[in-house]
Design goal:
This protein has 488 residues and is α/β, with parallel strands linked by helices. It has helices at residues 6-16, 77-84, 97-117, 185-191, 205-216, 245-248, 260-275, 290-303, 312-322, 328-337, 339-346, 351-362, 469-484; strands spanning 37-41, 121-125, 129-135, 138-143, 148-151, 154-156, 178-179, 197-201, 220-224, 233-234, 349-350, 366-368, 375-379, 382-386, 393-395, 397-400, 409-412, 417-420, 430-431, 452-454. The model is unreliable at 27-32 (pLDDT under 50).
């Protein structure tokens, strides 16, 4: 197993823990054998990946407890874990991300202990996998510390690691007063000394994390993005509590319909109106000032006057179900056209974080700029940043919080090798651009599948919202069912 964050942990649980499986294992196919050993490869402790593995209590999950179970057939598992540890919240509450990492690690430890008693050898190698080479009837996984391990089956759960490079700052990526990501937060805190003027590039989830951390530590912070808009506000991204027939019909739409995007929009509006008959303009803010819009959307969320929030999870999952039937170009066009909804509503911020942001805005510690820099230079000991129609501004530090590139895989046919998130990409390789429903890698679209599976965010080449944890957990169950019955 390559990658052991929350998704990798889920794969491990479904693979070795009988309690994680809803049904008895079906009879084995010819030559299929029982699992004898599992090797996990990740430089971090199991469960403590980038998404959830930061111990700062200020960082909150954006999704509710009822969406964060690691067991596909037991959606209340995370809730029950928290209850066992004295938590008295509700299933639709959000909790610190470190609690999710602790849950993942505890479930891993319990499953590892159970596996060991049943004769399954488990080891965790604190390294990063670079390549997987197919040779004869086995796979050779090459690690960055020089080790090589051999496996009969491989599951790749790589997560995200490469920060995006924001406009105006490519020449400055290695400048000591520029940080490519706000994570891990210990690095962010160590990067700044004393009260500082900080420009944060971005206005979405990573930027909100950065702003809350910086303002808490006494820094004056400015957020900037091309849109100048914060996400909308909701209590949390929660699991559906009732069916939404208009959204269920999305999965039955004709993928070749030239009006597909318009029909999806109509289904979404119908679903929202069944929840809240008020016009959509009364469920959102039209204010142009970011601070005023934040105030108004906090008030809407506190009154429960945003019916759109309830449809986000079932809409995400309906689009995930529809997307594999779309040609890649059509899928990308659909997601581009829906960008306004994704950036503001599908990835809306939680009410608790919105209140924290507003507190810092009211205190004068946080400002949300209405435009993005066109030029930036470091002169005289500070950053000189120019935004359209504005006087030059000066900052002590710049933090990039524009997100991460999705992981990508590349195939080198000459030696039957897959490269995992290579940078730079070797010129002799071809990008992996196709993934079938079984989530197995193939060297060519028509070739037989390898015993290599991809789970989680790396499946973005097949589906949108590949970082949606509940869907990744379902993938974990699907893949491990295949592995347990796979011929050796």
């Amino acid at each position: 197993m390559i990658g052991c964050g929350a998704v990798g942990t889920s794969v491990f649980l479904h693979l070795v823990d009988p309690a994680a499986r809803p049904h008895p294992v079906p009879p084995s196919r010819p030559r299929a054998g029982r699992i004898r050993s599992v090797t996990l490869v990740d430089p971090n402790p199991v469960g403590w990946g980038l998404a959830f593995g930061d111990g700062d209590p200020l960082l909150m999950c954006n999704s509710a407890v009822n969406l964060n179970s690691l067991l596909a057939h037991h959606p209340a598992d995370f809730f029950e874990h928290l209850r066992e540890h004295g938590w008295q919240g509700r299933p639709d509450d959000c909790v610190p991300r470190a609690w999710m990492a602790a849950y993942s690690h505890q479930r891993y430890t319990r499953a590892r202990r159970s596996a060991t008693t049943r004769g399954i050898q488990v080891q965790h190698l604190r390294a990063t996998a670079r390549t997987v080479t197919a040779q004869h009837d086995a796979y050779h996984v090459h690690l960055d510390d020089g080790q090589e391990i051999t496996a009969t089956h491989v599951v790749i759960c790589p997560g995200v690691h490469r920060p995006r490079t924001p406009d105006a700052f490519p020449p400055h990526q290695h400048h000591p007063a520029y940080l490519d990501s706000p994570y891990p937060t210990a690095r962010l805190r160590g990067h700044l000394t004393g009260p500082a003027r900080v420009l944060v590039l971005g206005t979405h989830q990573s930027a909100i994390d950065a702003a809350l951390l910086l303002c808490r530590d006494g820094h004056h912070t400015t957020l900037t993005s091309p849109s100048g808009r914060l996400p909308a506000v909701r209590t949390a991204l929660t699991a559906p509590t009732r069916p939404h027939p208009p959204l269920q019909r999305i999965t039955r739409l004709d993928p070749a319909d030239p009006h597909l995007a318009d029909k999806i929009t109509r289904h979404v509006i119908e679903a929202i109106r069944l929840i809240d008959p008020r016009p959509l303009r009364h469920q959102t803010s039209a204010a142009t000032d970011p601070a005023q819009r934040l105030r108004e959307e906090i008030a809407l969320a506190e009154r429960g006057a945003c019916g759109w929030a309830e449809i986000c999870t079932p809409l995400i999952e309906a689009v995930i179900a529809l997307a594999p039937a779309l040609p890649p170009a059509h899928r990308d066009a659909l997601m581009t056209r829906s960008g306004w909804f994704i950036s503001r509503y599908a990835t809306a911020t939680t009410l608790i974080n919105a209140r924290r942001l507003l507190t810092h805005i009211n205190a004068g510690a946080l400002h949300v700029a209405d435009s993005y820099p066109t030029t930036a230079s470091f002169t005289g000991g500070s950053w000189r940043v120019q935004r359209p129609g504005r006087a030059p501004e000066h900052f002590d530090h710049v933090i990039n919080a524009t997100g991460f590139h999705p992981p990508h895989l590349a195939w080198e046919p000459g030696n039957n090798t897959w490269y995992l998130n290579p940078s730079p990409v070797p010129p002799s390789t071809a990008p992996v651009e196709n993934l079938e429903a079984d989530l197995r890698l193939r060297p060519r679209p028509a070739a037989p599948p390898e015993r290599i599976w991809v789970v989680g965010v790396a499946t973005h080449i097949r589906i949108p919202f590949a970082n949606h944890l509940r869907n990744a957990v379902r993938q974990a169950g699907q893949v491990t069912d295949q592995i347990r019955t796979s011929p050796l």
